[in-house]
Amino acid sequence: MPKAGRYHEGVPCWVELGAAGLGRARRFYGGLFAWEFVELPGRTVSRSSGCGSSAA
After folding, report:
1. Closest by alpha carbon to 55, among 16, 25, 1, 3?
2. Is the dihedral of CA 5, 10, 12, 16 positive or negative?
3. Under a CB-based contact definition with an 8 Å cutoff, are residues 48 and 34 in contact?
4. Which of its termini does the chain have fewer beta carbons within 10 Å around, N or C?
């Protein structure tokens, strides 16, 4: 696997996380990273107003 470098501010970056218990994962990661969650067809997307965004 290549070594991670530095991400430039404003460049999109995402990670996908599969979770068996979506409700528990939302509570855990929402509390840990202050993520907000948006329901989309077939997936839930999380976002942060702070240091970046994610998809779950």
Report:
1. 16
2. positive
3. yes
4. N
Domain annotation covers residue 5: no
Other C-beta atoms within 10 Å of 33: how many?
15
Rounded Cα distance, 13 and 41, in Å: 21
- Global pTM value: 0.58
**Predicted confidence (pLDDT) at residue 48 exceeds the cutoff of 80:** no
The number of distinct structural domains making up the chain is 1
Do residues 54 and 15 make contact, with C-beta atoms less than 8 angstroms apart?
yes
Name 16's Cβ contacts closer than 8 Å, sequence gap at least 6: 55, 56
The answer to the question of residue 26 being in a domain is: yes
pLDDT band at 52 (very low <50, low <70, confident <90, very high): very low
